[in-house]
Amino acid sequence: MDSRIRRQRRARKTRAKIAELVVARLCVHRTNSHMYAQVIAADGASVLASASTAEKEMRGQIKNGGNAAAAALVGQRVAEKAKAAGVERVAFDRSGFAYHGRIKALADAAREHGLQF
């Protein structure tokens, strides 16, 4: 099994547990160049808020989209958008990625700006 398949298996297990909680989830995806975050409704049918380093507004603020500083900006932005949409509590879905580095920076920034998880 390669690392991508192992990560997807971990993500599937996490999403099954989050589905039991019946709460919106903050789903994070990481590539070498960019960070993406979405707040998905509890039923999984709609995206309530999203942010990424690939957005035009974000590209003007950051030099490199693949570092912890950029991830922190994404966390801040998705938290602000989620609060504007009326979402305060979420479950953190790290998509099978290890909780350190950019994933941790995004989560910490989202917590600092009002999301509870």
Give structural notes.
It is built from four helices and four strands, in the order H-E-E-E-H-H-E-H. The chain is globular. It has a four-stranded mixed beta sheet with strand order 3-2-1-4. Strand 2 and strand 3 (47-52) form a beta hairpin. Helix 3 (68-84) runs parallel beside helix 4. It starts with a helix and ends in a 5-residue tail after the last helix. The mean pLDDT is 96. By secondary structure, the protein is of the alpha+beta class. The chain has a single domain (3-112), classed as Nucleotidyltransferase, domain 5, CATH 3.30.420.
Brief summary:
The protein is α+β, with helices and mostly antiparallel strands and about 120 residues long. Helices cover about 45% and strands about 20% of the residues. Strands 3-2-1-4 form a four-stranded mixed beta sheet.
Largest sheet: 4 strands, mixed
**SS class:** alpha+beta
- Let me know the average pLDDT: 96
What's the arrangement of strands in the largest beta sheet? 3-2-1-4
Helix content: 40-55%
Query: What radius of gyration results from the CA coordinates?
Result: 14 Å
Order of helices and strands: HEEEHHEH
CATH-level-2 architecture = 2-Layer Sandwich
CATH structural fold name: Nucleotidyltransferase, domain 5
Oligomer description: single chain
**Which blocks of ≥5 consecutive residues have pLDDT under 50?**
none
For the record, the count of structural domains works out to 1
The strand count comes to 4
User: What would CATH call the class?
Assistant: Alpha Beta
How far apart the termini lie comes to 32 Å
Number of helices: 4
- Percentage of residues in strands: 15-25%
In one word, what is the shape? globular
